[in-house]
Amino acid sequence: MTNILSENRRARFDYDILEIIEAGIELFGHEVKSVRAGRASLVGAYVIIRGDEAFLINCHIPPYQPGNIPKDYEPSRTRRLLLHKKEMHELVKKLKEKSTSLVALEFVKKKDLIKLVVGLGRSRKAHDKRELLKKRAVELEMARAHRGR
With CB atoms counted within 10 Å of each terminal CB, which end of the chain scores lower, N or C? Predict the structure, then answer.
């Protein structure tokens, strides 16, 4: 059973998500508590690959109890993702062949672990975003008209 703890709704609007990967994430204890409380922010977060490791960049996780953390703690620090080597090699291959990027989509709770759902996505152009907004508006109008009967 998976529960969504925090999500990046903007990423699904800005990118066409081609593939979804679930990765573990290396967190401190107080960060785990903060994520479980739903206080993590994935707005603008993305994933980079350096060597044989993947890292989450620009994810803001505030301290759970500000008085009980180290003085040098940085809420937007770079965090290491936990992936199998085979998954890493497949990701690197897919990133090279297409003009894609890795975007953080959501934190989920799976059993007792916190996982990060990462999307392999292609950036949408401005006209594609406008078309998507028009399509959503039409669907909303139809739903309202259908309920009104």
Answer: C
DSSP E strand stretches across the chain: 2-7, 15-25, 46-50, 53-57, 79-82, 101-110, 113-123
pTM score:
0.80
Would you say residue 149 lies in a domain? no
Domains held by the chain: number: 1
Structural contact between residues 50 and 83, judged by C-beta atoms closer than 8 angstroms: no
pLDDT per position as a tens digit, 11-27? 887 888 889 999 999 99
Lowest mean pLDDT across 61-70, 81-90, 113-122, 136-145: 61-70
Output the domain CATH number for residue 16.
2.40.280.10
109, β-bridge pairs: 3, 114
